[in-house]
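As a warm-up, study this chain.
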Amino acid sequence: MKFEAVTIKDIAKALGLSTSTVSRALRDSYEISNDTKKIVLDYAKKINYRPNPIALSLKEKRSRSIGVIVCEIANSYFSQVINGIESVAYDRGYNVIISQSHESYEREVLDLQYLASRSIDGLIISISAETKDLEHLTKLHDRGFPIVFFDRVVDEIQTHKVITNSQGACDATTHLIRKNYKRIANISNATNLLITKSRIEGYKKALKDNGLKLDEALIEYCPHGGLVYEEVEKALDKLFMLDKKPDAVLSTTDKITTSCLRYFKARNIKIPDDIALIGFSNSELTELLSPPLSIVRQPAFKMGEAATNFLLELIESKRPITNFETKVMDTELIIRQSTR
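Now compare it with the structure written out below.
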C-alpha cells in the first residue's frame, strides 16, 4: 500500500470543519477561537500530522532552510557553534545545510553557489582564512539576501555579526606575564582576518600594560589558521632559531594549538619545563592532556544561537532591517598546568 501523508483536508473532513478554518487554527490565527484551535491541534497531534514542507515553501516563498559555511566541522569550536545553530533553527522549523571551506577561498565560493542553488532562506558564515575578495557575498547581500557573520567577520558588509572580544588574548598574555614569562610568542591566524587583528591587539595591550617591550619577531602568522601543519611548524622553527628564544607561546586558534602540541612532542620539548603554552581551544580533551592545557574558551554554542536568532529575524521580518548589531561575547580563561 502506498503511504499517503495526512493533509489539512483530512483533518477538516474528520472534524466537520472547513479547510480554511483548520489552516488558520494550525497557524494560531486570531480569527479562530481558542476552543476550535484546541480541537484542531489535539486531533493533529493524535494523528501525528506534519505540515508538508514543499507546500509550505511554495506558499511562503521560503524553503525553511538556512545555509552554514565554516572552515572545518571537525574543529571543536565550529562543531559547538553548529550545535547552537541547529538548536535554534530546528525549534523554529528550519533545516540546516552545512558546508566546509577548508580555509579555501575557491571552496567557499563554490559552497555559496551550491547553497544558493538549493534556495536557502539565509546564510550564516565564518569566512575562510584565504578570503579577501568579498564579491561572492556582496552580490547576494546587495540583492537583499540575509547574511549573518560570526567569528571571522568583515567590515565591508553591513549586517548582524557575532564575535568575541580581544580580552581573551589580553587575559592569556597577562596570565603568562604574571607567571614571570618574558619572551611570549604569539602564533596567529591569517593577517587579513579581523579576528587575528583583534587578538594581536589584546596581546600587545597586555605587554604594554605590564611594561614589556613588544618584539615583532615573536609574532608569527599562519595563512591557513593551522589547518596546514607545516605552516605552524615553520612558524615555530623561526621562533626557536631566534637568538632570544621564547619562553612561552600564545596560540590563537584551535588548530594552531593542536599543531603546537604536535611540534613540541615530536621534538621532546617539555611543557611547561621547557616552554609554557596557552591556546584558544574549545576541546574537552585539553584537560586530559599531560600536562592539562591552559586555554581561552569561547562561548561557541551561545554564538551559534545568537547568529541564528539574528538570521531568522532578517528572514522573517516583514520590513527591511537597516539597524544591525554586532554582538560581542566574553571568553573564559581556564588556567591549568601547561602555564605553571
